[in-house]
Fold these 2 entries.
Entry 1:
Amino acid sequence: MTTQPGDAATKKQLPPLPYCQPDISEEEIAEVVDTIRSGWLTTGPKTRLFEERFRDYVGSKHAVAVSSCTAGLHLMLMAAGIGEGDEVITTPLTFCATVNTILLQRATPVLADICLDDYNIDPEQVEAKVTPHTKVIMAVHYGGQPCRMDELAAIARRHNLLLFEDAAHASGAAYRGKMIGSIGDATAFSFYVIKNMTTGEGGMVTTNNDELEDKIRLLRLHGMSHDAWKRYDAKGSWYYEVLACGLNYKMTDVQSALGLHQLARLDGFIERRARIVDDYTRRLARLPELVLPKAREEVHHAWHLYPIWLQGERLSIGRDALIEELKARGIGTSVHFIPIHYHPYYQQTLGVKQGDFPNTDRLFAGLLSLPLFPRMTDDDVARVSDAVEEIIVSHRL
Ligand SMILES: Cc1ncc(COP(=O)(O)O)c(C=O)c1O
């Protein structure tokens, strides 16, 4: 099948469709403006309230708002005392922040390959990588689908390890009826602009462990014994002590104003995402060249991503050219992720190379994420699906 010149002209008239877009209501904008007027430009009462609401939403004992998920991951490792000589097992199919925060602590990231049914870390591979130096399993809930937490928790118990979670994609996800954020020893969420809920930049750490919470709060605020915002209110005192070498990883009330609203809308966002996913899957299922994402039956998937896996053997087009053809039709896509072992920095520092993790390598060769965000219309989904189908059909060998 070839594209007709007339088709191209029609397609050109369609506005560009990004791969992701936040949904910010007028009410939220008004609350942000009110917050600025209130004078609480940094951490204050709205951040406290956001922490409480998030804690109640996930059902954890504590929630600490931070400046990003990266900051949250770093704080979790710092608070647990992870340092030189320690090993942290994680997945090669993740964003660089998961690994960078381990390296910042001078600890060693140890990569374990993924399962091909959900693209999450494979518990059997994790077990095989445990050594006397292992201290933490860092589970990453790829695309919003929770990892096999029972299996990971059993390994952690057997070897006396901490189970940490990078839930950058998984706000609103659940595993066997338990919300992500209430299961592992500590969990970091991202509220970056394109995530399931957003504060522009921002994140949250949840934990049921009092000691970890205390340390994370301390380290979030330079290691100072007092919350800075208390210093400036009527009951505050000028006195503080530095008890540890901390950082400035706080969330502002301006961000929290947005976060409070976004949290209240999160379940609705995920419902809409799930409907879009069903629609995509129904439309694309007729293409045998695609492996489509599926939710495992024991999870509530947060559907942050819709990753498709192109099986290129019988096609004259590969993943990279498919991305370009979609781009030419005004459709944005992304790749989650260029695996850790493909990046020069980790090849040099960790001694890893392409081909080291066969499942990740196979998947990455054909992996791309289609547009997925709550404001997408049914017509947008049809447009993307039709474009994918048309390109694939026209490149069949
Ligand atoms: C898996 C994963 N972990 C961590 C992060 C970092 O999140 P943030 O941008 O909030 O620091 C991201 C961001 O995209 C991510 O995808």
Entry 2:
Amino acid sequence: MRFRRAPATDAASPPATPRAVRRALPPAGQLRRERRTLLLVREEKLRDLGGLMLEMYRRDQFRQDLLVDRCIELGRLEERLAELDALLAAAVSRGRTRPSARCECGAPIFWGSKFCPQCGRAVSGTPLPVESS
Ligand SMILES: [Zn+2]
């Protein structure tokens, strides 16, 4: 059984918020509130996804479509979170650059990662967003 990402059409769906539109920067407090809420939603959805996966394992019945749907949903959520981080970084520390997050093994850690994609070490805490502009 192999898990693959959704077909390109789904994966390429545009994020909820268009990035190209230039708007005034929302107040940092508002961004932080949305970020906090999304982080909680994300934790819950991750737990659900893990529980669902475990249940499927127990029954030896993998419904890939269900898992993929939830992964897509989580992907969108993380996209918005990354966007919020970028907005916050712009609002809070204009011009200041941050080092990108790295694992002890030296591999770059992507936003929201729990494990290093290279060595599998658990990542402690939420890494700072990798500067991308
Ligand atoms: Zn690593």
